[in-house]
Structure formats: C-alpha cells, structure tokens
Amino acid sequence: MENKILEMKNILQEHNIEKINEFVSHFQPFDIASMLVELEHEEQLIFISMVPIPLGAEILEYLDPELQYQLLHRIKDRFTSSFLNEMSSDTIVNLLLSIHPHHAKKLLGFLPDDYRKKIYTIMNYEPNTAGRLATVDYIAARINWTADQALHHIRKVGHDAEIVSYIYVLGSRGELVGVVSLKEIILAKSGTQLEELIQGDAISVLVNMHQQDAADILSKYDLVAIPVVTEDQRMVGILTVDDLIDVIHEEATEDFQKLGGSQPLVEPYFKNSIWNLFRKRIVWLLILFIAEAYTGTVLRHYEDTLSEQIALAFFVPLLIGTGGNTGSQTVTTLVRALAVGEVQFKDMFKVFRKEVSTGFFLGITMGAVAFIRAFFLGVDIDTGSVVAISALFIVIWASIVAAILPMILHKLKIDPAVVSGPFITTLVDGTGLIIYFSLAKVLLHL
Amino acid sequence: MENKILEMKNILQEHNIEKINEFVSHFQPFDIASMLVELEHEEQLIFISMVPIPLGAEILEYLDPELQYQLLHRIKDRFTSSFLNEMSSDTIVNLLLSIHPHHAKKLLGFLPDDYRKKIYTIMNYEPNTAGRLATVDYIAARINWTADQALHHIRKVGHDAEIVSYIYVLGSRGELVGVVSLKEIILAKSGTQLEELIQGDAISVLVNMHQQDAADILSKYDLVAIPVVTEDQRMVGILTVDDLIDVIHEEATEDFQKLGGSQPLVEPYFKNSIWNLFRKRIVWLLILFIAEAYTGTVLRHYEDTLSEQIALAFFVPLLIGTGGNTGSQTVTTLVRALAVGEVQFKDMFKVFRKEVSTGFFLGITMGAVAFIRAFFLGVDIDTGSVVAISALFIVIWASIVAAILPMILHKLKIDPAVVSGPFITTLVDGTGLIIYFSLAKVLLHL
C-alpha cells in the first residue's frame, strides 16, 4: 500500500495523464480513494483534475463529505459541475447536509433545475427515513412500453443510473405500477409488453418509513434495491442494498452501545470528543447509580442481621453478581431475538416458561456451587445453606425479570435494547439482597 | 393474511390450475412461502404440484430445509428433478447438509453429473467459509468474446443464473480474469471486446476465507456479488449480497450473545431446548462465579475493618456496580469499534488516553454523587469521603481495564466480544473492593 502511494505521488509530479490512467486502471475506485486520502491536498487536487470524470466521480463517492467539498470547491467550475452530475444523488444529499448551508447553496447552483428540485425533496425528508436515504438515479419505464423499448431506453439513460438491475414501471401520474428486472427484459421475446413481465404487486416502502424497517424488508425479500414511494404511490427514488448494509451495521452498533448502557454515538469512535463520550455515558451512569442506590437502603435495613453475622457480607458481591450475569444472558438473547423478529409479544408465555425452566436448572447448579464456595471460605453450614438457597432463588428471579421486561417494553414500543445488561443487573441487585437477607433472618433466626 | 390463507385453501380444494395462477400472480414468492407454511401438509403438496415450476422453485427457496425435503420427497419424481434444477445451488447445498445423508444421496441422484460434482465441491468446504456459501449459478464469459457475444450468451443461459448483474470473465484454465457488469455490456458499442470493459483487477475472495471477512469486503466495495476463487484463481462460484446480509445478521447476533456472557446459540431462539440454553449459559456462569469468588476472599480479609465500621457494607453493591457499569460502557463501545474496524491495535495509546480522560471526568461526577448519597443514608462525613474517593478511583480503574483488555485480546486474535459486560464487571468487582477497603483502612485509621 505505501509503495503504491509513493508511486502515485511520483506519477502526479510528472503531470502525465497517460501514466495516471495506466496507474488507476489496475485498481477499483474504493482502493484509489483509500490511497487518495493519504496524499497532500495539492496532490489530491492534481489527481482529481486529471482522472476521467466518471472514474473521478466514483472515487469521490468513497470520500468523507468534508474532503468531497474541499476538492469540489477548489477545482475548476466546469469540473465541479461535471462531477456533481456524475455523482449519485444520495452522495450529493449527504454532502450538502454535511457542509455549511452557504456552501451547499453554491454547489446546488451547479445542478440542472429539475435535478436540484429532486435533491431538495430528498433533503427535506426526516433523518433516518427511507426518503432521506433514497437515490433518484433509477431507471423508469412507462407501462405501455415493450421490453425492446425499455432496453433501448436503458441504453440511452442507463449511464447515469446507480443500479440498472431493476426497471421501475410507472403509470401516467408517476405512480409505481410494477418492477421488472433487467434480466427479464433481456431474456424476454421481442415484442413482449412490460406489463406481462411484472410479477405480483411491487414491494415498496413509504418515504417516512424508518431506515431499519426498510432494511428489514429488503433483506426479507432478497432484493438489491427497493422503490420508495409517497402515500399516493408516486415514486420518489430507490434504496440500494449497499446503503442498507450500512444501515444494518449502524443499527447493530447502536444496539450494542445501548446494551452496554450508554447512549449511542452518532459518529465513529475517534470523531467523538472526550466531552461527547462523557455526555453519552454519564446520563446512564447516573440513572443506574440512583437505581442502585436503594441497595444501600436495603443493607442499612438489615444492619443488625449483618453485624450479628458479618460472614453474610462476604457473599453479597457473589450473589448479586451471579443474579446480574444470569439476567444479562437472558436479556441479550431476547433483545436480539426481538430485534430480528424471531420472538414476538404473543410468544411471551412460551418465553416465560422456557426461561424459568432454564433458570431453575441454572439455579440448582449455582446453589450447589455456592455451597461449596461457602464451605471453602470456612463459613458454618447454616450460613452456607442460606447462601446456596439464596443463589437458587436469585437466579430464578433474575431469569423471570429478564424474560418479561424486554417483552413488555417491546410491546410498549420502547426499544428493549435500553434494558441493557447494566440495567437488569441493577434491578436484580437490590431485589436479590432482599431475598438473601430475608432468607438469612428466617433460617438463621437472626 | 389469515383471509388470504383461507382463500388459498378454498382454491386448492377446487384443483383449478388457472385459479391458482391468478391467485399467486398478486404476490411475491416470499409472501406465498409465508402462506404455504400455514397450510396442511397435503395442501402444500397439492399447491407445489400445481404452480409453474420456476415460481415453485423460488417459493421453495424461502422454506426450511426440512419442509423443502418433505415436499421434494413426496411429489412425483419428474417434479423433484425439475425443481432441483431450478433451485439455486446454495439452497440445494444447505438442504443436502441439513437432511440425513441417505436422503441427500437420493436427491443428488436427480442432478446432472457435472452439476452434482460442483455441488459436492461446495459441500466439502468448511462451514462458515466463502466456499461453503457460494452458489455456482453465475454467468461466465471468455476473455476473447465481444460484448455482443456475451449478451447473446446471457440470453441463452441467464435463466438459470441467480444473479445476472455481473458477468465473470474467465481465462483458458477457468481462472478469473475480470468482472464486467451487465450494465456495461448493454451500454457498450457493438463490437467492443470484453477485455476493454474490465476495470481494474477483479475483487475476489478465497474459498477458505471466513464468511464475515467476505461480507466485509462486499460491503466495503459496495458490490452485489463477489466471486469465490481457489488459491490458483480458478473460479468456484459467487457469493450474493442477500446471503451476506444473513451473515452480517448472524455475526452480530453471535457478538450480542457473547457480550451478554453466553455462548452463541447456533439455531434461532425457539429451536433451542431448555437443556441447550442451560448448556450455553452455565459454562460462563460458572467461570464468572469462580472469577467473582475472590470477592469473598477480599471481604473476609477486611472482616475486621468491616465489623468496626458496618456502614462500609452499605456501599459495596453501589461502588462495584458503578465500576462495572463504567467498564461495560467502554467495553461495548470498543468491541464494536474493533469489529467494524474503526479502531485498531496501533490506536491503543490514543484509546487509552481518551478513555482515561473520560473516566476521570466520570469519576469526579460519580464521586460527588456518591458523597451526596452517603450523606442521605445518614453516614458520617469521614465514611462518606471514603465512599466518594473510592468511586472516583474505581471509575478510573474500570475505564483503564475496559480500554486495554479488548485491545490486547484483539491483538492475540481472541475475539474481544468474550470480554463481555459480565466479564469486565467481575474483574472490576474484586479489584474495586480492594481499592475501597484499602482507602477505608488508611483514611479511617481502622
């Protein structure tokens, strides 16, 4: 990689277009973009003014919006205009929304009127919706065309489309009537009407659908792109699979961070300042601290029991830790199963039975182990028995709480990922202590 | 949905092929498959013998391997043969590996010799590799062809291909020379050589690459399919984006379950017996129990300190809980950032600085809050100060441990997801207690 970048730097110094073309012909646009970011800014400008426009536009797609802007801003106006017309509309929308509105306005001036209007429409949809993520570079056909006419049309306009695998068949009002794949058009007998090639009602998503739901539909139907329509079925654009893969990654990352008990970071890790990390984390830490604070009240309540039998304190972290671990295992499994749709609210009773049964056997095992541990700590048999029975009940209790809570939150449309490991741990801690000390009081007659 | 199923049942009773065709024409194969699983088995058999073979094959793709087998096994042999020849090779491989080898052998008998050989090759690759996931239904072209010849070839064989968006250009030994998109072939001027259309070296993956890595490459280069080759560049098949989306989901689910502190479930939630859930969870529960057991030793060591100042016990769950929560936040953020490549081992020092600084400010805040809590529990100022200072140090300590551990494990090629929330919690619990009681001993002169 580093050799390649040096080679690139040398070639750029020569200002020899043929050598540059020969160099880039060995790489994919993504790889060239990865090399480009390692160059000096002046070198980047030379490079981008010397590669063929279509390739340059593809390379620009892989760069950060800031760098995209710096390059588009500093090259000659006619290049800026050509690049913008070659870039995909979703990249342009992302670029325009990431830079200063004043700069965005200047760039918008380079676009033809009707294209600018389409870009405006997309920019006005809410963040994280299907509409905002859509690209307008798709190929549309009329319902009364034949397959040959469609193919002719593709040959004419296909160059600007982000994806040509599907052709979207529109009615007279611009409403989506059906989808035909390029494969079907190519394989169709001469003279076939597009209408005959449409199989079933078109799968589409509404502009205001959440991007996560759109990604789910795309992966359910094994599609490469999905049309985005308004309430009255007018076609706005398409979502492509590569953008939705990014959405899947993003949403999984968010769930991870929520499970870890912090608010999701919007930016990649290193783009977050210390202050930002602090802000995202302190909220949950404080909430959990306040929730956990009642363990102090519980323990103070049992102060006498505790001072009579100080050995009971030895097992506090162990018992509440085990309860928390059990709850955490169940919660993560269920949160994920709910997120991917394997489990639904109507399965609640089934889940409950399964988790409680599993919890029972886990409890028996952990109780036995706790008894052995108490023995080796040199604690008397009675206290050991209290620890063992407590372990049994705490594990079952943690399983119950962890099974029910995510289901109820899911039903209440609260993201169950917020019932993170730390949250369930906190909840089980105090209640676990009550179980432990109540049993101790009764069984040890304290 | 339920109405549709009733309608379907009624139509099936009439055995009227036209009505069935009219009914299915309104749906996508995925939707028909979702309805089919709700029918009686006899009805399923009638249905699958009456729909057109290509549509039936598409519907079969969405069913469980068990149901696929039951249907293929009970319909007439000539149907079985036609369906198998229409189904995609990766579905067939998955089916054959899920049923009894004896049954698999019988089904393999329905395939043409050369196709059977290809299927055998795929079946012999290791699970979770690119090779095992590949489909052999792709379109290959020769390097010396023109675009027109390639298009003619696509029209001839395209029907059996899973994806026609890319054409794979092979050399004389069957080695992959380059990839050309169908778009480029369609847009090419008449007489263009395929060689001229190839841009850069083909992106491909080796047969034994892990499926997760293959998915990463596909999403990095925004591809819809990626060719799978042997060490000597011979083409084996392609991985398609829909299969890789499933891989992305699977791998995220595994990471979730590991973070939750249990071994990943291979099957969907409800397919796991109670015994299986028990087995997956008890291992980690026991490991964590044993790791946590030393908190008992620590507390027994400080038994005298504890009995002199019993109020110290009130804050044990709160302090170790806060330490665990802080560690858990950092670990989940970093594990995810490592998994998606945002953070690398070489960034260790940067991560360390960032996390310790964040931890410092979090610690200050939590220390202040802990002091307030101690005050309201009616504890004396000295003990309250010990609790506050302990909170500060424990939070910083938890940040340090949680920042370093995943990085080191990642470097040692141990999956950092195993440094799950529960694991870091356990680790911080005992060390946190040592910090707490050492401070108490010194500051309270106990």
Provide a brief overview of the structure:
Chain A is mainly α and 446 residues long. Chain A contains 23 helices and six strands.
Name the poorly predicted regions of chain A: none
Oligomer: homodimer
> What is the C-alpha radius of gyration of chain A, as a whole number of Å?
30 Å
Q: How are the strands of the biggest sheet of chain A laid out side by side? A: 1-2-3
Q: What's the SSE pattern of chain A? A: HHHHHHHHHHHEHEEHHEHEEHHHHHHHH
Structural class of chain A: mainly alpha
Number of helices of chain A: 23
| pLDDT averaged residue by residue of chain A | 89
Show the largest interface: A-B, 117 and 116 residues
Describe, in plain words, how this protein is organized in 3D.
- The structure is a homodimer of 446-residue chains.
- Chain A is 65% helix and 6% strand.
- Chain A has helices at residues 2-14, 17-24, 29-36, 41-50, 53-61, 65-74, 77-86, 89-98, 101-108, 113-123, 130-133, 147-157, 182-187, 194-197, 211-220, 241-259, 274-292, 294-301, 303-308, 316-339, 348-376, 381-411, 421-443, and strands spanning 140-142, 166-170, 176-181, 205-206, 225-229, 235-240.
- Chain A folds into 3 domains: 2-124, MgtE N-terminal fold, CATH 1.25.60.10; 140-240, Roll (CBS-domain); 293-443, Tetracycline Repressor, domain 2.
- Chain A has 23 helices and 6 strands.
- The first copy, chain A, has a 3-stranded mixed sheet. In chain A, strands 4-5-6 form a 3-stranded mixed sheet.
- In chain A, α6 crosses α8.
- The mean pLDDT of chain A is 89.
- Chain A has 446 residues and is mainly α.
- At the A-B interface, α12, α13, α16, α17 and α18 of A face α12, α13, α16, α17 and α18 of B.
